[in-house]
Design a protein that fits this description.
Elements lengths: L4 E14 L9 E10 L4 E4 L3 E4 L2 E4 L17 E3 L2 H4 E6 L2 E2 L3 H7 L3 E2 L2 E10 L5 H25 L9 H26 L2 H8 L6 E11 H6 L2 E8 L8 E12 L5 H5 L11 H15 L8 H21 L1 H19 L7 H15 L4 H15 L6 H10 L20
Antiparallel strand pairs: 1-6, 1-7, 1-13, 2-5, 2-10, 3-4, 8-9, 10-11, 12-13
Helix pairs in contact: 3-4, 8-10, 9-10, 10-11, 11-12
Length: 411
């Protein structure tokens, strides 16, 4: 059976090769819709084939949602998590048809997930038209994904990547035509005249759909993707969008799973490691509560731990740093007056750099802040370091009202 994966889809940054509007005048914004066709809402049933309803996740398509309205050639515009990041579980689609299970020799078929993106450039539209266009974009993607899933209903094999790619073109074409119609219908009489003659419409730089499947993520847990719109392919300027899919099996992200395996040879825990685990559990259940501000850092670490566990399994220097920090923790928790030395700071930096990697813009900001904190800890007593971290809230918390990764808005 295929595993259920923790899936993170991240749009990382929009790079401007040529702003197309004259120096410093470009005002990009972005429309994103995330989706999945998986075992949460789909199954292959006897006599019916693949049936279900896709999960569709939207956010905001407003002007200025990239947070940068003065972009020139050479700029990298980070995509905020509120519009560019979605975390979910990707479950294989169960086959409840015994005949088809026998034919395929499997109990399930791979799930499909993706994101449809339209990069826009603000010109003359009022904010209301941008919002109207985005609402139409969301509706069109929803309908098109339903049609794509229906096209595989009677298939006797899981769709190939090429078949998915061919069908996903339907999503892009449907979205583009629906947006044009919705914006035109929303315009008043004078707006139709103005934007049809002298007015400067917002430009669609380009639209793309990025997809992945359970099988692809099992083979390659981190899949980078990008799309550049230039020349005749671009509606305005030369822009490149970059992102990544990350899929990790649902694993135990406890202290043992992250720290217990020694990179030098997979040796079992030694007495010092066991003592450190016990000290960390005791602190988590007791002393941790004396530092309320640490909760936000714990939440960030919990979010990053699946990716960190995967990285540590592949990079011995990261596992070595984690194991070293485990021993450090035992020392510090046994004596909170013990200082944080240079070697411990190097281990912290190694782990933070590994977490940052190709992480989301939000995680990279948090890591940068954490690294600045680590720079201040040389020779500082561990108890004082806890107080410093507790008083420093992680940056870039999810804005109020935005869909949180674990609580998406589902159409």
């Amino acid at each position: 059976m295929r595993p259920t994966l923790n899936l993170e889809t991240v749009l990382q940054e929009l790079h401007c090769h040529d702003e197309g509007d004259g120096w410093g005048n470009a005002e990009p914004y972005i429309w994103t819709v995330f989706f999945k066709v998986d075992g949460d809402n789909f199954a292959v049933e006897a006599g019916s084939g693949l049936i279900g309803s896709p999960t569709i996740v939207s956010s905001s398509g407003s002007h200025g949602n990239l947070g940068d309205t003065d972009v020139d050639a050479g700029y990298d515009v980070p995509v905020p998590d509120a519009v560019g990041r979605w975390s979910t579980k990707l479950k294989p689609i169960p086959i409840n048809d015994a005949v088809l299970r026998s034919l395929l020799g499997a109990d399930d078929v791979p799930a499909i997930a993706g994101v449809v993106v339209s990069v826009m450039e603000e010109d003359g539209w009022p904010d209301s038209l941008a919002d109207t266009g985005y609402a139409a974009f969301v509706d069109a993607v929803h309908l098109a994904v339903v049609k794509v899933a229906a096209s595989f209903q009677r298939a006797l094999a899981a769709p190939t990547p090429q078949q998915i790619k061919d069908q996903i073109e339907v999503v892009k074409e449907s979205a583009a035509s629906s947006v044009r119609a919705a914006v035109k219908n929303a315009m008043s009489g004078w707006q139709l005249i103005w934007y049809g003659t002298f007015g400067n419409n917002d430009d669609s730089v380009g639209t793309e759909a990025f997809t992945t499947t359970t099988d692809e993520l099992v083979d390659t847990p981190a899949i980078n993707f990008s799309r550049r719109w230039s020349g005749d392919e671009s509606g305005d300027g030369d822009w490149e969008l970059r992102g990544v899919f990350r899929g990790f099996p649902q694993v135990d992200c406890s202290l043992e799973s992250l720290f217990a395996v020694n990179a030098a040879g997979g040796s079992p825990q030694d007495a010092a490691q066991t003592g450190s685990f016990e000290a960390m559990r005791a602190f988590r259940e007791g002393g941790f509560r004396e530092f309320p501000g640490l909760g936000a850092w714990w939440a960030e670490f919990t979010t990053a731990s699946p990716a960190l566990a995967d990285i540590a399994a592949k990079r011995p220097e990261v596992q070595d740093a984690l194991n070293g920090l485990l021993h450090d923790a035992g020392t510090w928790l046994g004596d909170q007056s013990a200082p944080i030395d240079g070697a411990a700071r190097e281990r912290l930096d190694t782990v933070l750099d590994a977490v940052s990697g190709d992480a989301s813009a939000h995680t990279r900001r948090v890591v940068r802040q954490a690294k600045r904190l680590v720079e201040r800890l040389d020779g500082v007593a561990f108890g004082d370091a806890l107080r410093m971290a507790s008083e420093l809230k992680p940056v870039g918390r999810t804005p109020r009202g935005a869909p949180r990764p674990e609580e998406p808005f589902v159409v």
